[in-house]
């Protein structure tokens, strides 16, 4: 089985619609794909409706978190999307995205970059607006050559010249909310140092003690040494190890299925989840 548990659609900051994403996942030879848009489940219904036969969808979301001033992302799998407490927290995070984007635009204008809210809103479309949309605007304006080049201290990285914070969930609270909604919690790309400061291993151990299920080890932002270190940490803490593409369509160079999750780990995730079940494809729309 080929299993990719971390992808994004136009419901957040990917460039494939949810329907396109599942069709592309099937074309890439995947057996299982996880749709984990940022702080939203809005793309799930479209993905399910279009789900090709032979492909299974794992519903999820990537929750924006912060602890001790360090941003981090928590992948939530197979939770009840209508559970009130987690739904309210996702809405709180999403509602803060527009003023945050406008704040970054204001800072960029002060730096002499003629980006506008109208431009960023066009790029975001119906998706939850975020830094990748602002970064895409910088690419369109010729300020940076790629989206990744916008995530530096010069521009949009944490603490960068145009960075603006937003409401982000405490990760310990995120785990409580995910578990309360019957879901499974996996810390996304915990060693992605190129994105900024990373959470120390002592905090990962504390998260494991309150119910963290796993960590994403095989990821494009982890070099071989980081993967080896995280795999050893996971073994020490009794955490599941996942691998995923973190696919964003044309916004990133990584391909669907470029990194994958072991079938036994996938099976354990589905066994632990009580909020929702994987959805098998029946042919799609």
Model regions low in confidence, pLDDT < 50 over at least 5 residues: none
Biggest sheet features: 8 strands, mixed
Number of strands: 8
**Order of helix and strand elements from N to C terminus:** EHEHEEHHHHHEHEHEHE
**Cα Rg:** 18 Å
Number of alpha- plus pi-helical segments: 10
Instruction: Report the helical percentage.
Output: 25-40%
Mean pLDDT: 95
User: Ends: how far apart?
Assistant: 24 Å
Give the CA-based shape. globular
* Global structural class: alpha/beta
| Residue share in β-strands | 15-25%
Protein traits:
36% helix; 8 strands; 10 helices; alpha/beta; 8-stranded mixed beta sheet; 285 residues
Could you characterize what this model shows?
- The model has no long low-confidence stretch (mean pLDDT 95).
- This protein is α/β, with parallel strands linked by helices and 285 residues long.
- The radius of gyration is 18 Å and the shape is globular.
- Strands 1, 2, 3, 4, 5, 6, 7 and 8 form an 8-stranded mixed beta sheet that branches.
- Helix 9 (224-237) links the parallel strand 6 (214-218) and strand 7.
- Helix content is 36%, strand content 16%.
- The chain has helices at residues 18-27, 44-49, 84-95, 97-110, 117-124, 131-140, 171-180, 201-209, 224-237, 263-272, and strands at residues 3-7, 32-35, 56-67, 70-77, 184-188, 214-218, 240-243, 279-280.
- The longest helix is centred in the middle third of the chain and has 14 residues, at 97-110.
- It is built from 10 helices and 8 strands.
């Amino acid at each position: 089985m080929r299993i990719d548990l971390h992808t994004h659609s136009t419901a957040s900051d990917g460039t494939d619609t949810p329907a396109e994403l599942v069709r592309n996942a099937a074309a890439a030879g995947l057996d299982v794909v996880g749709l984990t848009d940022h702080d939203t489940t809005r793309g799930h219904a479209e993905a399910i409706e279009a789900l090709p036969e032979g492909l299974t969808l794992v519903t999820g979301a990537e929750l924006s978190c912060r602890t001790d001033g360090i941003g981090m992302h928590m992948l939530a799998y197979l939770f009840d999307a209508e559970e009130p407490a987690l739904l309210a927290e996702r809405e709180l995070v999403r509602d803060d995205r527009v003023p945050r984007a406008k704040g970054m635009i204001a800072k960029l204008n002060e730096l002499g970059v003629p980006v506008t809210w109208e431009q960023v809103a066009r790029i975001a479309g119906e998706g939850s607006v975020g830094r990748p949309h602002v970064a895409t605007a910088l690419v369109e304006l010729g300020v940076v050559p790629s989206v990744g080049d916008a995530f530096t201290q010069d521009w949009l990285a944490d603490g960068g010249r145009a960075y603006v914070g937003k409401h982000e969930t405490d990760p310990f609270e995120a785990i409580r909310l995910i578990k309360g909604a019957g879901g499974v919690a996996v810390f996304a790309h915990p060693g992605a140092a190129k994105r900024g400061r990373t959470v120390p291993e002592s905090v990962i151990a504390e998260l494991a003690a309150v119910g963290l299920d796993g960590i994403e080890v095989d990821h494009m932002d982890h070099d071989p040494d980081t993967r080896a270190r995280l795999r050893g940490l996971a073994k020490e803490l009794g955490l599941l190890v996942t691998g995923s593409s973190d696919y964003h369509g044309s916004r990133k160079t990584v391909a669907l299925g470029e990194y994958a999750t072991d079938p036994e780990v996938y099976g354990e995730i589905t066994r632990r989840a009580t909020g929702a079940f994987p959805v098998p494809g029946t042919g799609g729309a």
